C-alpha cells in the first residue's frame, strides 16, 4: 500500500528535509513518528528536498506499507507524535495512491514562493519567514528583469558551487512578482530547479530593484554562465515550497 502525504512545515529549526548527522531533519522527525505508530521502519520519498531554514506549504511525500491503514486516524496520530516532539511540522492529509505514483519523479512542476518584507521595521510575525529589506525596491524594474529568466536557459550563473546536477539547463515556466502592501512575493514554477537557483535569482533581482543594476544585466549574467557574476544568495528563511503539480 502506497501512502501519499501532504506536509506543511516551518523549516527554521531543521537542517533541511534530508536526514543528516548534524541536527534534526524534517524527514527524520516524520519517519520517527511513523515508526512509533506502525512499530516498523519506513523510508519516505519526497517531491523536493528543502535546505535548512526553508519552509513548505504543500510538500508531497510517499512511503510504502504492507498493511491497510485507517488514514484519518493515522493522520491524527502522526500529528500527535510530531507535536509531542515539539516539531513545527503538520501533516495536512494522507491518502492511498497507485503503486506507480512517485512524489519526486511523477511531479510535472514545482512552485516555489519567496517572500520579501519591504519596510524599515521588522515583523515579529514574519521573522524567520521572510527577508527583511528596509530599502525601496522598484517593482516595475523587477518585473522587466525577471522576463529574461523565463523559458529555457543555461542557469549555470544561478546555481551554487555545491550543485551536483550534471546539466545546468532548466526551463522556468513562469515567474510572478506580486506586491502586497509591505510584502513582495516572487513565485517560480518549473519542473525542476538547480541548487539555490531561486535564492540566487531573487538576490540578483533585488540588486536590480534597488537600482544597483539595470534590468538587462540579468540577461548578461545568464550569458556569462558564471556564478561569480550573479548577485548574492537570498536568505533561506524567505523561501517556501508552495505547490507540486502532478
Task: Provide structural commentary.
The chain has two domains: 2-97, Pseudouridine synthase I, catalytic domain, N-terminal subdomain (Alpha-Beta Plaits, 2-Layer Sandwich); 109-245, 2-Layer Sandwich (Alpha-Beta Plaits), CATH 3.30.70.660. Helices cover 23% and strands 29% of the residues. It is built from five helices and ten strands, in the order E-H-E-E-H-E-E-E-H-E-E-E-H-H-E. Strands 1, 2, 3, 4, 5, 6, 7, 8, 9 and 10 form a ten-stranded mixed sheet that branches. The mean pLDDT is 97. A hairpin with a 2-residue loop joins strand 8 and strand 9 (183-190). By secondary structure, it is of the alpha+beta class. Helix 3 packs across helix 4.
Short description:
This protein has five helices and ten strands, in the order βαββαβββαβββααβ.
Question: Any descriptors?
Answer:
246 residues; single chain; Alpha-Beta Plaits; 10 strands; alpha+beta; 2 domains; 10-stranded mixed beta sheet; 23% helix
Which bin fits the share of residues in helices?
10-25%
Major beta sheet summary = 10 strands, mixed
Query: Which CATH architecture of the largest domain is right?
Result: 2-Layer Sandwich
CATH topology of the largest domain: Alpha-Beta Plaits
Helix-strand blueprint:
Elements: E1 2-9, H1 26-38, E2 45-46, E3 55-64, H2 71-84, E4 89-97, E5 109-117, E6 131-132, H3 139-146, E7 151-154, E8 169-180, E9 183-190, H4 197-209, H5 217-224, E10 239-245
Parallel strand pairs: 3-10, 5-6
Antiparallel strand pairs: 1-3, 1-4, 2-3, 5-9, 5-10, 7-8, 8-9
